[in-house]
Structures are given as C-alpha cells and as structure tokens.
Amino acid sequence: MAESKTHEHSKQPFNLVEEPLNLSVLLDRGWKIFEEVDNTNEALNSDAVQIKVKLGLSMLEEASRMVAQLNLFSRNEELEEIATADLKYMLLPALLGALTMKKINRDKRLEIIQTAQAYFVDFLKRCKDYNVSDFELPKSVDENREPDAESSLAAMGPSPVDLVSMAAQRRAKIERYRQKKELESKLTDVQRAVESGQADDEVTTTLLPP
Questions:
Q1: What distances in angstroms separate CA 115 from CA 4, 97, 182, one per listed residue?
Q2: In DSSP terms, which residues pair with 21 in a beta bridge?
C-alpha cells in the first residue's frame, strides 16, 4: 500500500467550529452526525435534526474539498496503490448523498434529490474507476432529461432509492477492504516483532485486534 498522503496535511480552518479540524476529524465527525441522524427517533423535519444535517454536510463538504486539493485519488491508480489510511475518504460522496437525502425542504425537494443523485453517481464512478466491483453506471441526469422537463422525476434515470442501495453496497465493500488491509498490516507488524525476538505478550496483544 502507498504511504498516506493525508498525514502531512496541516490543519485547516473550519468556520462552524472554534478549533481547526483536520481531514480525518472532519470525516469522522461528519460520519458520526450521519449515523446519529439516520438512527434518531426524532422527527426528521425538526429544527434540531436539520441543524445536525447542515453541520454534517458542511463538515463532509469541507473534507471533500481537502481530498480534491490533496489529489488522493486518480484514475491512473489501482485500489491496492491507495494507502489504507486513505481508503475511508472514498466514501465521502456516498455519505454526502445519504446525508443530503435527510434535508427537508418541500420547495427544493427536486433540487435535493438531484444533488444527492449527483453525489451517489460520483461515488459509483469512483468505485468503477478502482474496479471495486463490476457494474454498469446509470446514465447521468443530463443524458436522461427530456427538453423542458425540469420538474419531471421520471426523466432522472435511476431512483434515489436505487442509487442509495448501490452506493451502500459499494461503501460496505470498501470498508471491508480497508479493515482487511489494516488487519494484514497489524499481522505483518506482529510477525516482524516475533522474528526479531522483540515481541512479548503485551506487544502482541496491543498489535492484534480485540
């Protein structure tokens, strides 16, 4: 695996919180907010939930901008060339799409759906570029839209529900791959420690997952 490009990235200012947040923290907090919103028993259209949605989207959007600045992903790379620590950033468009679908605004419902769809399609394109799995990409919104059919949901191609399902499957596969690589890395560290005679029970227990 390649060396992570994110560890050298200095902390960036973030206007919704007091302290600057780095890329990893932005993703982790945005992801946590999505999980909280996705699992809440509170009404989705409540002010408290919508404030969380807005904050989570701001964090994930900032993280996405940082990823673009760092050039973490390239169509010329293979999945194996991405540093294990950077794999989680492949999930950003999927998380952005899923959290966008949590926005409630009746006057902008079509705009929200189209924005979420664009995120999901971006995520699926990234998965296809890295051969995460073999599948046919849905046609873009522009390719499917009839002239003067701005308000027609039928012209949007695959439904958001279909895209959510596809993105969730690929997201789970990337997460499993990342966990597998992390485990392989830990096992390699243990093996080297044992072979060098420097390993004891405490070191081995620390390196191995619980």
A1: 30, 7, 33
A2: 12
Interatomic CA distance for residues 167 and 99, integer angstroms: 13
Instruction: State how far the Cα of 122 lies from the Cα of 90, in Å rounded to an integer.
Output: 10
How many angstroms separate the CA atoms of 164 and 162, rounded? 5
Task: Tell which wins on pLDDT, 190 or 42.
Answer: 42
Q: Based on the number of CB atoms within 10 Å of its own CB, is 197 exposed (0-12), middle (13-18) or buried (19 or more)?
A: exposed
Tell me what percent of the residues of the chain surpass a pLDDT of 70: 62
Q: How far apart are the first and last CA of the chain?
A: 23
Report the distance separating Cα 155 and Cα 104, nearest Å.
22
Structure tokens at 137: 């990409």
Instruction: Please give the pLDDT value at position 17.
Output: 46
Predicted structure pTM score = 0.66
Banded model confidence at residue 193, pLDDT cuts 50, 70, 90: low
Cα–Cα distance measured from residue 175 to residue 91, given in angstroms and rounded to the nearest whole number: 9
DSSP string, 44-65: TTSHHHHHHHHHHHHHHHHHHH
Contact present, 119 and 86 (Cβ < 8 Å)? no
Q: Could you tell me the pLDDT band of residue 38, with boundaries at 50, 70 and 90?
A: very high
Long-range contacts of 8-14 (CB under 8 A, 24+ apart): 9/66, 9/70, 12/62, 12/66, 14/59, 14/62
